[in-house]
Amino acid sequence: MMSEPDTQPCLMRSYSLIAPAKINLYLQILGDRPDGFHELVMVLQSIDLADLVTVRSRAIDGIRLHCDNPDVPTDETNLAYRAADLMIREFSDEYARFGGIEIDLHKRIPMGAGLAGGSTNAAAVLVGINMMWHLGLTQGELHDLAAMLGSDIPFCISGGTALATGRGEKLDPLPDLSNLYVVLAKYRDLPVSTPWAYKTYRQTFGHTYPTTPAAWDAAKQKAGGILSAIAHHDVKQMANLLHNDLERVVLPSYPKVQQLRDEFQRLDILGTMMSGSGSTVFALVESMAQAEQVKAQMSRATPDSNLDFWVTKFCQSGVRLSNN
Ligand code: C5P
To answer: Which CATH number fits domain 181-313: 3.30.70.890, 3.40.190.170, 3.40.640.10, 3.30.10.20?
Structure first.
């Protein structure tokens, strides 16, 4: 049994963090990587839809994870659990000094949604333990730990608007986009497996992957349009250039996702796209009033008690401390 951790009153024992979701404004699959993953070019954007993650030092052995959603696993299959486990292994002296880790997840981000819900929880655990154990890790060091756990987790730490390359873990910040509003639509009983989406993409389109360095470079240029639109703060052009290669495999296999995409497309919006591997489809608009109107129009066009909507907006940060 772990001994009682030291009781210096100055050491804060609990941190509550806001862990925002993300959407993909752009997702291009370039080809295969030697590590079995895909080489990607993505533009990622944090949104205000967020989970609340609390990490606490406790006189317990190991990790205890609680979640207010009974469908979320609380064992080592949960990325937040794995993040805490990684910190315990990397910083065993601090673990011995501060004791075990209790994590509370207050979930608002849906699962299997392509919104990085699990990744952002893991990001919050890394950031929270860094503070709780006074590790003083830099953002770069946190990114390196995050990349060991999952491709989207480094972005979830820093957030905002970023170009993500490699597996998705190499980040270059992009200029802030003006505060666009986002309507998200997702069927509650319709998760999409990310490994399935990438595997199916490889099986279907692997023969088209570039094979020469020149072809590889040419493929990378495709992202130039949306990057230029973002650099010039041209929101309308950016929305015209939304792109997600995974739609090519997910939409034909999930007609209900295709239908959401088609319904959004009929409305007066800046643009619509599936996020990540789905099954969330988002629409971008310029005001809260427009977002509420689009949500109402969508609910009327696709009445289904299993269809959830969220109205949210772009946010310029990743994981951050909650004021509460
Ligand atoms: O890195 P992460 O665990 O989030 O990835 C989930 C799955 O998505 C991977 O197991 C892999 O099947 C697929 N993936 C990929 N190439 C990437 C990122 C993810 O093939 N760059």
So the answer is: 3.30.70.890
The CATH number of the structural domain formed by 14-175 is: 3.30.230.10
> Distance between CA atoms of 303 and 319, rounded to whole angstroms?
34
Query: Which atom, in ligand 1's list, is nearest to the CA of 150?
Result: 1
Give the number of the atom of ligand 1 that is nearest the alpha carbon of residue 198: 20
Domain ranges (residues) in the chain: 14-175, 181-313
CB of 24 sitting under 6 A from ligand 1: no
**Residue 219 CA from chain centroid, whole number:** 24
One fold for both 14-175 and 181-313? no
Position in ligand 1 atom list of the atom nearest CA 168: 21
Give 276-287 as a 3 state SS string.
Answer: CCCCCEEEEECC
Active site residue 152: yes
Integer angstrom CA distances of residue 13 from 10, 33, 81, 214, 258: 9, 41, 18, 53, 47
Half-sphere exposure of 63 (CA within 13 A, CB side): 24
Distance 136 CA to ligand 1 centre (A): 29
Q: pLDDT tens, 125-156?
A: 999 999 999 999 999 999 999 999 999 999 99
The reply to whether ligand 1 has any atom less than 6 angstroms from the CB of 167 is: yes
CA of 301 to the centre of ligand 1 (A): 34
Contact 243, 219 (CB under 8 A): no
Write the single-letter amino acid at 50: A
Pocket flag, ligand 1, residue 40 (CB < 6 Å)? yes
3-state secondary structure of 100: strand
The answer to whether the CB of 56 is under 6 A from ligand 1 is no
pLDDT digits (tens, 9 = 90+) for 238-255: 999 999 999 999 999 999
Structural tokens at position 227: 């990057």
- 22 part of the active site: yes
pTM comes to 0.95
